[in-house]
Specification:
This protein has 19 helices and 26 strands. The strands form six sheets. Strands 14, 16, 17, 18, 20, 21, 24, 25 and 26 form a nine-stranded mixed beta sheet that branches. The chain starts with a strand and ends with a helix.
Length: 582
């Protein structure tokens, strides 16, 4: 018996992934196959192209011949899955592979389960339905998505929806990719997607579901992908690969710029690659700006910036690319009013930055901001780092983690030229243990977004003393492995927070920068971007009060992981990507 659900895209579906046809039925292809058993279709009801339809029909026919056998196999796998308490026990040798980003810019192949296509469609359907409904008290003329964005002020901070946790789908502080493109947020004119990995067909489906297909789209990406360099890219899509000039660098930024028909602009800074699996059972963070209106035609040059200098910082970063396709977006940003943006834009770009430029990028840029605005009361608070990958940090903690990055993260007003790290051991690193990954929604495959290698770990055994497990009942995401990266300082009573940084930057010298011995140059190898929340600019107070994300009512800052932290204990060990490759 065919238990497959009908594909929601029907005739417009242009997927050719065999797994998609195993998971979804396509009644229009069944009819076409009866009429054209030789696959030589002569009409195109969905407008996907005759040749595409013929290729699709051939793949569909092959799947249909073996569907009964495949269905029995899937039933057997489901039984095995249930017997293991929901842990993954199926065959990982699928043809749908993805790459995992590492701290040094290389990529590993990351395997994806056969039901990825089903889940990405399901989330698109949910996101589409959500846009037309309302939440809480109904507001005439406002969709649920728009109301969600507006109600998130002044933080505008979200986590992603987790596929296997329905409670996150209901949260007013959880969103999906299609929410960001929803028509209620503005009539999209063009968009810029900046990322590391991009799955083009998945990305375009998000635009299609939100009725934005065919609108100009520029993609800046880092990971090599033949699909993005092909001559048959849709006419409205321009893709440019950004290659950092250093072998251990990578184009790692994750951001989008949305320009609307009325010339207003919205910016989103987040931690997800533009691939389906990153939006499913991972923990990801997103900051979504308010809609920034176009300035008056007679507005003075360089006007429309905020006290945080977000606009000028963003323009400096985008201009650094020197890519002509980006110029239309820098112009749109320069012409809009971003005075309502209350976060700092903190970024990294490749180069050996000297003199005053040292304080424009990387951890030294962050240190300058913190040194100006963090109250001295926080000078003895611990620094908490939570990331998804770890680079080579040196033979001892004082080589870089404590004496360089740690000093920048611990800066405060009155802290001198570089602030000071209070004492050894105050840098606390939250990173999933081997056990945490095995207990995740995706089992061992949950470690696909955590590419810390055994080779690197064996060179820095001291790091184990700084490590804490991933526990996130505060956001109902303990089993959703973290691809989010955050940096913060919390008081000993765990009630106050000095700042919160959401960024693409993992714990590595390539991402944050490494000072030379003379202290007058900082070498950065990668592109990164993040937003810094400082209480002074967001709530007008000296510190954020801390609240659990799952209980967030708009008061205090919603921390996604649990406090107090849980220390690694013998024989627990961090997750190493090598386990997935065995």
């Amino acid at each position: 018996m065919d238990k497959r659900q009908e594909c929601c895209f029907k005739e417009k579906c242009y997927r050719k992934n065999p797994h998609h046809f195993k998971e979804y039925s396509h009644s229009h292809l069944e009819l076409l196959l009866l009429t054209f058993p030789d696959f030589q279709v002569d009409n195109d009801p969905g407008g996907i192209g005759i040749q595409n339809l013929r290729e699709q029909l051939k793949i569909f026919a092959d799947i249909e011949k073996t569907f009964t056998k495949c269905d029995e196999t899937n039933d057997s796998n489901d039984k095995g899955k249930n017997q293991n308490g929901g842990a993954y026990s199926g065959n990982t040798n699928t043809s749908n592979n993805m790459s995992a980003e590492t701290s040094n810019g290389t990529t590993h192949k990351r395997q994806s389960t056969p039901d990825n296509d089903e889940q990405r469609k399901r989330q698109k359907i949910e996101a589409k339905e959500e846009g037309g409904s309302s939440v809480g008290i109904s507001r005439p003329g406002k969709s649920k998505v728009l109301q969600k964005i507006e109600d998130s002020a002044p933080f505008y901070y979200f986590l992603n929806k987790v596929k296997d946790n329905p409670d996150t789908h209901k949260s007013s502080h959880s969103i999906y990719m299609t929410d960001l493109l929803h028509p209620s947020l503005g009539n999209l004119k063009s968009s810029l997607q900046i990322n590391f990995m991009v799955e083009l067909d998945w990305l375009l489906m998000n635009y299609e579901v939100t009725k934005n297909s065919g609108k100009p789209l520029v993609i800046l990406y880092g990971a090599e992908d033949p699909q993005l360099t092909a001559d048959n890219l849709p006419g409205h899509v321009k893709a440019v690969r950004i290659k950092p000039k250093y072998p251990f660098g990578t184009h790692h930024t994750k951001m989008m710029v949305l320009v609307y028909e009325d010339e207003s602009v919205r910016v989103a800074v987040h931690t997800s690659n533009l691939i389906a699996s990153d939006w499913e059972n991972r923990t990801q963070g997103l900051w979504v700006s308010p809609r920034c209106p176009k300035l008056a035609d007679n507005a003075p040059p360089l006007s429309g910036d905020s006290p945080t200098k977000f606009k000028s910082s963003l323009l400096r970063y985008l201009t650094y690319y020197e890519v002509s396709a980006v110029q239309q977006f820098t112009y749109a940003i320069s012409c809009c009013d971003m005075s309502a943006v209350n976060v700092f834009f903190v970024s990294s770009v490749p180069g050996s930055h000297k003199n005053a430029d040292i304080y424009q990028w990387g951890h030294r840029a962050l240190s300058k901001i913190l040194r100006q605005h963090v109250p001295e009361e926080a000078k003895k608070w611990s620094v908490k780092i939570q990331c998804s990958s770890i680079g080579s940090l040196g033979q001892t903690p004082d080589v870089w983690l404590e004496n360089e990055l740690g000093r920048s993260l611990s800066c405060y007003s009155g802290g001198g030229a570089a602030g000071a790290l209070p004492s050894p051991g105050k840098v606390e690193l939250i990173y999933p243990s081997h056990e945490d990954v095995l207990n995740s929604y995706d089992g061992v495959l949950g470690g696909g977004c955590l590419p810390y290698s055994r080779q690197t770990h064996t060179k820095q055994p001291w790091l184990w003393d700084h490590m804490y497990r991933w526990k996130a009942e505060a956001s109902l995401r303990t089993r959703a492995m973290p691809h989010i990266k955050t940096y913060t300082r919390v008081d000993p009573d765990r009630k106050k927070m000095a700042y919160f940084l959401l960024t693409s930057a993992n714990l590595s010298k390539a991402a944050w920068g490494n000072m030379n011995k003379q202290g007058n140059s900082c070498l950065i190898m990668s592109y990164e971007a993040g937003v810094l929340f400082l209480p002074k600019f967001v709530t007008g107070e000296d510190f954020f009060s801390i609240t659990e994300f799952k209980n967030w009512d708009g008061q205090g800052f919603p921390l996604h992981y649990d406090l107090p932290l849980t220390k690694y204990a013998d024989p627990q060990k961090p997750w190493l990507y090598d386990y997935l490759l065995q």
